Amino acid sequence: MNSDFFKILGRFLLLIPLQVLIANHLRIFGYINPQICLLFVMWYPLKKDITGLLLSTFLFGILLDSFSNSGGVNTAALLFICYVRLPIIKFIFNDKDLNLKLFKYSNYGTLPKITLILSLAFIHQFIVYVLEYFSVSYIGTILFKTFTNTLFTTFVVVIFLSIFTSTKKQ
Amino acid sequence: MQFILYLIQKNMSFLLFFVLELIALFLTIQLHSYRKSKFINSANEISGGLYNSVTSFRDYLHLREENQLLAEENTKLINYINASTPKKTIFLDSIDSLNQQKYTYTPAKIVNNDFHKSNNFLTIDKGLNDSINVDMAVVNPKGIIGITTNVSNNYVSAISVLNTNFKVNAKLKNADYFGTLSWNGKSTKEVQLKDIPRQAILKVGDTIVTGGRSSIFPAGILIGSVSNITYRNNRYDQINVALFNDVRNVSNVYIIKNLHKIEIDNLEKRRNE
Predict the structure, then answer these.
(1) Interfacial residues of B (vs A; Cβ cutoff 8 Å)
(2) Which of B137, B167, B152 minimizes the C-alpha distance to B257?
(3) Between the CA of residue B156 and those of B31, B44, B115, B164, B249, what are the distances in Å?
(4) Are residue B73 and residue B119 in the same domain, yes or no?
(5) Is residue B87 a part of any domain in this protein?
């Protein structure tokens, strides 16, 4: 129980500077920033109560937003990801009696994993850009930025996931 | 009553999600409507301090450009001093209200600079302790950069010129025609000038400076040069202005404090009442 808490706290304290100081300054082609903050939600243990996930993600998002002066844009997107995470995982891994306690990303194939990250990243990016531009007239820009950012985010998150899950295998 | 309690208990997680999402949306809408985020902004000790320590490392990479900029500004100032004729010494028997200083400049450093979004902000390493407050101009020798919006004891966050909510009064350098300058969120090198009257003669390459019709920017601060003009019904439709500054790459700035601002604001408030 306690080790989980410290793991989550560690990710919280590591992912924020990583996102704010490195990922937000990459600006590939001028605007692409991989959103590795997604990993906070993805790595949160499925067996745990969603209340803890929602509250910690809220804090995480607010802190990210305060760094980038973006109101509540990241918070709203991350909270939504939290809420739809379990249904999407069940749908993509096609596992109706998913054992939440034994769930591990490394138990599943590469393709479903990439699909999962792609869909989560797309939802997250879409909400971020819709809230940021806040205007229908920018729909072209919103979609273009969402697509390019989703692809790049997926690429980076897959790398992170493969690096850190392989070491955890016992 | 029990049924309602049962419903709440059953949908506890959804309700929590809903409430938190509402708070996040409220913060977002508040950012869009007030052009600054009152509650969540980077002018606090945590984000300001973290950005500050990282910037102190990164600054070494840009020392050459900064020195160049300072040398150019020095040359300009020396030329200005030499060109202006020596003033006659006048003995004043009272305080001359005409020659009172109106603006003070505080040197500061940008510790974080966003430019990839549509609403970009800067974080600057001066705050209330250096008598910096909200609604002050942020400039460098090449031109305008932003306006301060939120302040803490040691840091201030400023709305960047590359923010779709940024608006400033601007004019042609060689004629007194005024317009409004804003950014359309596309290129980080160009801003848009609107509401220029049709009788104004405008050419590509004309210099645009601040108009001084606000208590924030002094008149005549450089902005950029006209790069592209489109017409509609014989009127100016959109005028693109290429910024003199590369806002993506600024580090040292001045914050301008208008010493008459409170007086002007009070007067305008009284007029509106």
Answers:
(1) 12-14, 16-17, 20-21, 23-32, 37, 40-42, 44, 46-47, 50-51, 54, 112, 114, 116-119, 121, 123, 157, 185, 188
(2) B137
(3) 16, 8, 17, 20, 19
(4) yes
(5) no
Q: Is residue B199 domain-resident?
A: yes
Residue B93 has pLDDT above 70, yes or no: no
Q: In chain A, which residue's Cα lies nearest the Cα of B48?
A: A67
The mean pLDDT value for B144-151 works out to 92
B121, B136: one domain: yes
pLDDT in tens, B172-191: 988 889 999 999 888 889 99
Average pLDDT over residues A84-113: 81
User: How would you class A151 by CB atoms within 10 Å of its CB: exposed for 0-12, middle for 13-18, buried for 19 or more?
Assistant: middle
What residue in B sits closest to A62 (Cα-Cα)? B40
Is there a contact between A79 and B41 if contact means CB atoms under 8 Å apart?
A: no
For the record, the structure tokens of A13 come out as 């304290």
Does one domain contain both B252 and B133? yes
Provide CB contacts within 8 A for B216, sequence distance 6+.
B135, B136, B137, B147, B168, B258, B261
- How high is the ipTM of this complex? 0.86
Domains and CATH numbers, chain A: 2-168 (1.10.1760)
For residue B120, what is the nearest residue in chain A, using CA coordinates? A69
Report the percent of chain B where pLDDT is more than 70. Answer: 92
Contact B42 A71 (CB under 8 A): no
Contact B116, B223 (CB under 8 A): no
Amino acid in position B86: P
Split at pLDDT 50, 70, 90, the class of A163 is confident
pLDDT at A89 over 60: yes
* Domain contains B159: yes
Could you tell me which of B119, B230, B86 has the C-alpha nearest to residue A131? B119
**Can you say whether the dihedral through the CA atoms of B68, B73, B74, B76 is positive or negative?**
positive
CATH of the domain at B144: 2.40.10.340
Q: In terms of domains, do B173 and B241 share one?
A: yes
Kindly report the number of other CB atoms within 10 A of residue B69's CB atom.
Answer: 17
